[in-house]
Amino acid sequence: MASVQADGRAALPSARSRSRRTMLILLFVIGIVAYADRQVIALLKPVLDREFGWSAADYATISSWSQLAIAFSLLASGWVTDRFGVRWTLGAGLAGWSLATVLHAAVSTVSGFLGVRIALGVFEGVGTPATMKAMAQYFAPDARGRMIGLLNAAPNLAAMLAPLLVSALSGYTGWRGTIVIVGSIGLVCTVLWFSQTDATHVPARVDVNAWSGKGAATSRPVVGGTGRRLTAAFALGKFLTDPVWWFLLFWLPDILHRRYGLDTAHLGAPLAVAYAMAALGSIIGGYAPAMLAGNGLSHERARRVVMGLAALCVLPLPLVLWIPTLGWGVLICGLALAAHQTFAVNLFGLLTEWLPHDQVGRGTGIGAFCGNIGGALALHIVGGFVAAGQLLPVLGYCAVAYVLGWGVLILCVPVRSLVALRKRADANAAQ
């Protein structure tokens, strides 16, 4: 319990603890809103196809340009977040993509939808760099992995809730009313964000040891060549592994349909199980390194062990082509999604713990850009393999992608280099 000072003010650690909880809750809700805003057009696609007579090429054009808008926005958004701070950057981005979502209801042509989807992508690109910078700026290093794990579960929760919300609303309000309501939720969150973050703001230069509530030493950020290698390893890791996530996100329903004969009415439960496993993997990925650390194993070495185990969990993925039982097939795919989330959480945790917080936005933006470009290229290539009925090469790459990403991290940023830099920084600080 926080002590009370002589003038009646609560001691600082308690206030900071409440501030961090408020920040975490807001970021979690914003993560759900971002995913719902992005997915609403996909969920309403059958209705829009009938009303506007869209062709497959029209929808592909709208989707691909939206993805590219997000990717290039990430590059600029990282710098903008570092320059103007989390509060204003994320608030403006949230307001922008929510308004763009609402404007979907006002357009009726392919070019109109293309315009609002590009606008949504530009503003939504702010989300990832701003969230990771908030982790670096407002949370102690020993807590960031756990917090990122919790936040990374938000899209998985949204993937389960958004279809239920859209199906419940569309029958009463029509597709235009549904889109307006979904977008308006984001505008309400914008008001909450600006009203609450002013009170939750904590100066970034406060001693991180005081934030953690412990006397334990925390890792000092790295700069120079090691910082650049860390950013490069993060970016290459995202480029190698994000295509697996995007492939499973877009093609898992089709795989279950092809392998097990599931129609649309029977896909819901298996997909919900897979997404739930992904959310669980995200949370486990945030907590596992701290649980393994100790007894001579540093937190950073524990992180590498967790990422290596996650990489191994994806190796069985190609077996889904031969396993005849639906339950086992879903479990293998769900395990791959969970392993991706565990791996991704620790990639983000590595970046936020070791880069200076005034560089986290740019580092995150560069890595997320590479991940999105890798995902876009993969989705373009995968179409040809699927059309030819050749899923094995695709699933084969998915199986080894995380082993490759783990190897890149070990080679580019070995633990000993980070430990050596931390010791030198601690020695310089003690002088």
UniProtKB/TrEMBL annotation:
Record flagged with keyword Membrane: yes
Superkingdom: Bacteria
GO MF, any single term: hexuronate transmembrane transporter activity
GO cellular component, one term: membrane
Alphabetical list of Gene3D superfamilies matching this protein: MFS general substrate transporter like domains
Classification via InterPro entries: MFS, MFS_dom, MFS_Na/Anion_cotransporter, MFS_trans_sf
Cell location: Membrane
Topology term for the membrane: Multi-pass membrane protein
Entry keywords, A to Z: Membrane, Transmembrane, Transmembrane helix
Protein's recorded name: MFS transporter
Protein's organism: Neoasaia chiangmaiensis
Taxonomy of the source species: Bacteria, Pseudomonadati, Pseudomonadota, Alphaproteobacteria, Acetobacterales
